[in-house]
Amino acid sequence: MRIADRYIGWQIFFGTIFAVCLLTVILVMSQVVKEVRPYLVEQGAPLSLLAKFVLYVIPFSLTFTLPWGFLASVLLGFGRLSSNHELISLRMAGMSLTRIAAPVLVLGVLFSCLSYYIVGTVAPIAIAAGSTLPYQAASRDPKVFLNPGVVQAKFPGQKVYIEERDGEKLRGFHLYQLSDAEGNDRPTSYMHAREVDLRVDMEQKQFILTLNGWHFETYKDDGTIELGMAAEAEPWYIDWSNTNKRRTKVDELTNTGIAEQLHDPDTPPDLYKKLNVELHQRRSLSLACFAFALIGIPLGINGQRKETSWGFLASFVVALVYFGGMLFIDPFKESSQSLMVGMIWLPNILCLVLGIWLFRRASLR
């Protein structure tokens, strides 16, 4: 029995490592092309930025690739055991399917515990650290904050849009002054300049803008608008020293941090709901490895093929349905907390129920 346990367990374990590495590389590379390429190509950021990004994005990728890789390994492993008639030999030796699957179910529990640690501790820390990378790239050349064609909301209490930039010349400069420093409230004033001469004060971390063809609107509380215009205006200063200071997001909090805020009586109701939903989502996602073990074993046996295409295709379909169900809750963010929590746990419940039913059917054969 111990020989069979080691044989099946190590086969699934090494298959999981290989599948997770392959899937993680694919997912990380797609993120590198999407997120980091503009900084490397357009801004000349150092390659160390790429290394940091890869390091920070791996934990987030593992939250998906670890369950998916484990599922693919289980499907391929039990498909191979079935097609090579090793499963029949073990059954003839007096081992039930539950006993044969024991090492895989144990691995499912262990990988679920590992997944919970990654999702709840490692990934949030990595996400928080990774969110500062754009600011590290911009610190080498702060002018990237004034790239044309992009609505720039990183300046506290301001939003800036530039139609065209030619070196130190900005054309079509638009600036909205907001009543909320976080950039979430209504604009209190609007400024437009036909052309702007740009200077950068690296010591004070400020942009110094000389406005030409200046037009200004101030929005009063009574609904009236105060207008102003000039051929040339006094220099306008935009501070970029605080662009990397922002409010911590829910997905950047560890499970410990979420628990502390949930027990804080001063936590606002809306934030309490987001924190509670995030915690349930992490717990549900962590259970995926065990749920995939239950559903992967009978599906792998029923596949009965030597080709690896069956295992990867089946794992892709199951993972797509499972993670798609997790993402399906986004349109229901404004719904009640109980409904969102129920929808978060629904994919796991369906996988466990279907897995137990399929496992029982396979055991009775």
Quick tags:
alpha+beta, 6 strands, 365 residues, six-stranded antiparallel beta sheet, 10 helices
Describe the structure.
- There is one protein chain.
- This protein has 365 residues and is an alpha+beta fold.
- It has ten helices and six strands, in the order H-H-H-H-H-E-E-E-E-E-E-H-H-H-H-H.
- It has helices spanning 2-41, 47-83, 86-92, 97-130, 133-140, 255-262, 269-286, 288-303, 308-327, 337-363; strands at residues 158-166, 169-178, 187-201, 206-219, 225-232, 236-239.
- Strands 1, 2, 3, 4, 5 and 6 form a six-stranded antiparallel sheet that branches.
- A hairpin with an 8-residue loop joins strand 2 (169-178) and strand 3.
- The radius of gyration is 27 Å and the shape is elongated.
- The model has no long low-confidence stretch (mean pLDDT 79).
Short description:
This protein is of the alpha+beta class and 365 residues long.
Question: What is the H/E string?
Answer: HHHHHEEEEEEHHHHH
Q: State the end-to-end CA separation.
A: 21 Å
User: What amount of the residues lies in strands?
Assistant: 15-25%
What is the structural class?
A: alpha+beta
Give the low-pLDDT segments. Answer: none
Rg estimate, integer Å: 27 Å
The total count of helices amounts to: 10
**Main beta sheet:** 6 strands, antiparallel
Instruction: Give helix % range.
Output: 55-70%
- Overall 3D form: elongated
Overall pLDDT, averaged? 79
User: Total number of β-strand segments?
Assistant: 6
